[in-house]
Structure formats: C-alpha cells, structure tokens
Amino acid sequence: MRPRDMGTLFDEAAAGGARTMVHLDRPFDIAPRAGTRWTVTELAGLVRATAARLADAGVGPGDRVAIVKGNHWDCDLLACAAVRLGAVPALLSARLDTAVLVTLLERLRPAALVTTSEVLARCRDTAAGEPARILVTVDSAAPGAVHLAALDASRPPVPVRRHDDEPLVIHHTSGTTGVPKLVVHSTRTLVHKLARFEAVRYPGIGIRPDDVLANASAYGHGRTFCWTAVVMSLAPAGIVVLTGDDPETADPLLRAHPPTVVEALPASYIRLRPLTTRLDNAFRQVRLYISTYDAVHPPALRAYLTASRRAHPLWMQGWGQTETGPLTFRFHTRRSALAPDAETTARRLGRPVPGRTRLRAVDPDTLRPVPRGRLGLLLVRTPALALGYVGEEDRWDAKRVGDWWSTGDMGVHHRDGSVSILDRAADALPGMSCLRTEDVLEQRLPQALECVILGAPDGDPLPVVVTADGRLDPDAWKQATHGLPTLRQPAVLTWDEVPRTGTGKVRRAALARQLTGTAPAGTGRWT
C-alpha cells in the first residue's frame, strides 16, 4: 500500500489486511482505559471516533487545530483525525516554555486547541485572551473547555479530501536557537515526496513483514507523522511505542517484544544506552538502527551496534530538517564505528539522495559557491521543501537563495559528494568545530552522558559536561582536553539541569544564558 491520505490512512491499512500489533508503554491519553495493545483495525476505529468527537466540538474543514499534550503516538492519531475532517492540525510540544507556546498559538490563531487541563491553565495565565474558540481537554474537564471523552463519537463524518498542494499539517522546528518556526507541509511534500519514498522495501534497509519496530521519539514532530504513514503502509509484524526514555520503564517492554528495527531520538539513544550492556539485552535482535534528528556521538553508536547479535547490523544516519525532510543518508557498521578516525568521520552524514536532493556550500556572507572540501553554508534543493512558515513569511523568504534553501548549517561538501556538518551557523566559532570537539570529549570521557561547547563573546568557549551525578574528576578532564583548542573549566550538570527542546536537543542559547547570563557567540542570520 502506498500512503495517500493521512485522514484515511488507518482505514486503508486495515482494509488492506495489515496485521501489525502495536504495543504501548502506557495507554493513549485519548483512550486511557483501552489498554496498551492495539490492532490496526482498532487504531482505525479510534481515529474515526476521535474525528467524530472533534466534529461534535465544532471543528470543520479549513480550521487550524492546535494539538498540545504529553508525548505519545496519539498526537499523530489526533492529527489524522483532524485531517479526516478537512482541518489542518498543528502539533506543538507540551515541553515548550509557556511564553514560547503562547507566541506560537498567537501566530497560529487556531480555531480549536486540543490540550490538557494543565497546559490550558498555563496558557490562560500568560495569554491576554483565550487561545482558541474551541477548547478541548484530553485528560479531565476544565472550565470553559469540553472534555474529549464527553463528545459524541458515534457519527464519524465522511472524510474530506483536499488538494495535494493545500496545507496538510503544521509542525514546529526544534527551537534550539530561540522560538521555533511553524512549518507548513502539504500532502505532496510530506506524503508523496517523503513518505512514499521511504515506504519501499529496499534491500537490507526496508521494513519487512516480520520486523518489530521500536520507536522512542517526539510524536508531535514532523518525522513521526511521516513515520506513521510509512509503517502503516509497510505493515510490519509489530510496533513498540516508547513515550519516555527511562531505561527501567523501557526494558520490560523491549524484552517482551524484542525489536529488529529501532528508531529513536539521539537523546533517547543516550538515555537508553545502559540497556546495551545487560545480559540478553533488549537490542540483541536489532538489524537496523535509525537516527534522523542529529548525528549520534560515536561511543553511543558503538554501544548499540555491539549490543546486536546479528552478523552485520547497520546504523542509518539521516540529516535533514523539518522544512525539508531527510536530505542525506549515511550507514555505519561495527567496523566503521570502531575505526580510529570514527570521531571525525561520524560528522560525515552521507550523500544527497540521487535524483531527489542537490547540495552546495557557499560563503555565508557573499553566497558565492566555495570549492569542494572547504567550509561553507550548506544550501539544498529538494521537491519536498515545505510551503512556508506560519506568521513569518519574511523569515521564510530570507532563507531562500534563488532556487536554493539555506539549511543554516555550516559544513563541508567533500569531493566524493558527501557532506560533513560542523556546526549550526548560530553556534559556529572561528577556528574550531563545536560538534567535533564534543565528539572527541565524549569519546575520552566514558562517564559523560553528553558534552556541549558554548561559544562565549569574551573569551574561550565554555564546555558543559553532563553526567549522571553532576560530578567530573578533574584529572579525567585534563586528560580529555589534551590537544584540543583552549577551553574554560567545564560546567558539570545532570541531565535534568540542561534546558532541552521537545526532541531532547540542548537549547544552547538558553543554556548559555543559564550559565553565563549572556547569549552564545554566533549569528542567527540563517536560523
């Protein structure tokens, strides 16, 4: 089955005989009493019932529906229900700071807000007026809002079709450098150009009928909406949905349903890494790991590839953005992950997809192409480029360079066609790559969960080392920095002390302000 319409996706999968069993680590927020085991037919029924409830609340064709709730796959089910009504869902992370969330809602001006009573109270405390005309809560009743469960689910409307080039869904970017952008995709860009390309049983990396997929992601992000279309089309044997990244919570579910394919946020790979060293670890049957948000540092990459007992497990690393979808792909094996130069080659994120994506590096000031092998601002051309930003049309236009799109990433387009990402333009520092330095530090500091380099406008960069207990041996730090550019003494924090986006990325600007009181060095021109 090829994905066509996100509003009827689950109906079509069920009609096609999909026998996928879905296992959740906790019940859906929109069906809290329905358990943690679902068939595709039951999921199709849940989407229809949810669409009926939204219609009963007053949602109709063309309405924008903001969805803001806890991290779970039902974010995407709610989005599919809204699409079924001809509405345009906008998925926002509940982890956003309240002021940022209110700003995005003001840009959206949604007809309806589907949220929790806690998020609604936060918005009301900050915003000047009500965030939407229709207010629906998924967890409990709230003043002035209707509880989703109290709405009529018995009369699902006939699905509303839209033109392939009309707005389909809105997602926000990670927001590592400030207020996230609201990105609009159409059926053509997200379903036809992205999901259909992936919904093919490619040899070695395609989803097979006997696969069990585990996903630990941010389910309000554009990647999982596309992933939903892909997995429903390919109908694997099983799907395991992890909504958090606590190892003790994930372990029993993964052991009960050992995955053969794993996709996770880089932050989730970091948090779940202790499971790789356990006897009969939960990743022993994995043949393919997928990471699409950021490059995963080499120590974590090695740990997972070594944990698999398959003869030749693969790690597929994708580089892309919410605005573009995946742009390049790179594969790692045990051998490449253990190579002496793994710390530097890990930043090589593969080649553009042939026939679909073109890439060039330019001088960030003059926008003239730079020779292969030299650092530049990376521009891309792709038919999957989104339609624009909500409420920031000038910002969207500013990132267009003729027929090219500015990624905002600084990198090198090598002679063999591959690309290395060295830094975001907003984080770039003269004479060093923050990302490569972080890779080296993580390799040399086994106790580090994560390392972050922050540029300072008035001196050497500030390193931040994240450990389990917020401690770091001074001698270990001294040895780890041998041969590296001069750095300040590190700030040592625990995981929860670091400000993060909904996808687990470090909010570098917020972290710099938290530690130094000032914004980091770099420019935000291309963000």
From TrEMBL:
<dbReference type="Pfam" id="PF00501">
    <property type="entry name" value="AMP-binding"/>
</dbReference>
<dbReference type="InterPro" id="IPR050237">
    <property type="entry name" value="ATP-dep_AMP-bd_enzyme"/>
</dbReference>
<dbReference type="InterPro" id="IPR042099">
    <property type="entry name" value="ANL_N_sf"/>
</dbReference>
<protein>
    <submittedName>
        <fullName>Class I adenylate-forming enzyme family protein</fullName>
    </submittedName>
</protein>
<dbReference type="InterPro" id="IPR000873">
    <property type="entry name" value="AMP-dep_synth/lig_dom"/>
</dbReference>
<feature type="domain" description="AMP-dependent synthetase/ligase">
    <location>
        <begin position="31"/>
        <end position="389"/>
    </location>
</feature>
<dbReference type="InterPro" id="IPR020845">
    <property type="entry name" value="AMP-binding_CS"/>
</dbReference>
